TrEMBL record:
UniProt-listed Gene3D superfamilies: LigB-like (3.40.830.10)
HAMAP family: MEMO1
InterPro entries associated with the record: MEMO1_fam
Similarity comment: family membership: Belongs to the MEMO1 family.
PANTHER family on file: PROTEIN MEMO1 (PTHR11060:SF0)
Name under which the protein is recorded: Uncharacterized protein
Length: 341
């Protein structure tokens, strides 16, 4: 199918290679050189969660995940993202041979995508939808930058990529895809990028939870749903998130909901994360990619008897595009995490 064009270059991020390189260097240089008593990249941290908004919004947050990402042994890189451009049930694979960036093209691992396609579990991304989708593309320039820092300027030595869109699915379907992908996750020469923003708050997202009479209630839930308007029946411990626990601001409600989701991810238990999303309806757009990789990690950790702390995500950065105080406002949350295997 040729090369997928960098359709968001020049709008969501700069299309000038020199300018873009300088911007990414700046974002990465803002991240400390050490984290959690480790020099960066963190040895064995070959799985990350990172956001996918325009770089002016989420670029600084994504830098934390990318600086932690250990690519030194990588022979291929899986990129899992949600579909924003069409309804997808299950998972879909790219049909392109390469993904373009302002720096050059990253090659698709056609051997792996063909192997996955032969399972009968994956559909093909429609090429036009693939080009329109940003959840995968926004990681390609960042990945190129980190590959360049790891392997040098000869791009022919860079590992190929395996772009996968992860669509809608039940808890059991996520576990099933996680089991399928776990065989690749066990390979110490694979790295994984999971693409997700966190809470999307605002009327345009039909999600405006606020604190109301002891519960977090979604202003946009249909009144016919009655008690279902309550997002969380028992409010969190506001002393941990609110300046004034008696009257938390909207942005503090957002933080509390995101913290519940992040705590569930850090638990390493796929069913716990799935339940929190079902209970709160938090608009984590990459909830299905996160669910699939969590299911895979949980299986690998059990099979290989990984040491405590390994095989589980650890969040290292959390930001919001705006601190919401008014009902007509909006924001999107961004978070970065890594997992050591």
């Amino acid at each position: 199918m040729g090369t997928r064009e960098a359709s968001h270059a020049g709008s969501w991020y700069d299309d000038d290679a020199d300018v873009l390189s300088s911007q990414l260097d700046d974002f990465l240089n803002r991240v400390p050189a050490t984290l959690n008593n480790n020099n960066l990249p963190i040895p064995g941290a070959r799985v990350i969660i990172a956001p996918h908004a325009g770089y002016s919004y989420s670029g600084p947050c994504a830098a934390w995940a990318y600086k932690a990402l250990d690519l030194r042994s990588a022979k291929r890189v899986f990129i899992l993202g949600p579909s924003h451009t069409y309804y997808l049930r299950g998972c879909a694979l790219t049909t392109f041979d390469k993904y373009e960036t302002p720096f050059g093209d990253l090659v698709v691992d056609k051997a792996t995508t063909s192997e996955l396609k032969r399972t009968g579990r994956f559909s093909n991304m429609p090429p036009g939808r693939d080009v329109d989708e940003h959840s995968l593309e926004m990681h390609i320039p960042y990945l190129w930058k980190r590959l360049e820092q790891t392997f040098g300027s000869d791009s022919t030595t860079y590992p190929p990529i395996v772009p996968i869109l992860v669509g809608d699915g039940s808890e059991e379907e996520e576990k099933s895809f996680g089991e399928l992908l776990s065989r690749y996750l066990k390979d110490p020469e694979t790295a994984w990028i999971v693409s997700s923003d966190f809470c999307h708050w605002g009327s345009r997202f039909s999600y405006r939870p606020e604190f109301h009479q002891g519960s977090i209630r979604n202003l946009d839930a249909p009144r016919s749903q009655g008690s279902k308007r309550d997002v969380v029946q028992a409010a969190p411990d506001w002393s941990k998130v609110a300046e004034d626990p008696g009257a938390p601001q909207i942005h503090e409600v957002i933080k509390a909901l995101d913290q519940m989701a992040m705590d569930a991810v850090e638990s390493g238990t796929h069913s716990e994360f799935y339940k929190v999303i079902q209970d709160t309806h938090n608009t984590v757009c990459g909830r299905h990619p996160i669910g699939v990789i969590m299911a895979a990690l949980e299986l690998v950790a059990k099979e290989q008897g990984l040491q405590e702390g390994k095989g589980k995500f650890r969040f290292i950065q959390y930001q919001r595009s705006n601190l919401v105080k008014k009902h007509w406002d909006s924001s999107v949350s961004y978070a970065s995490a890594y997992a050591v295997i």
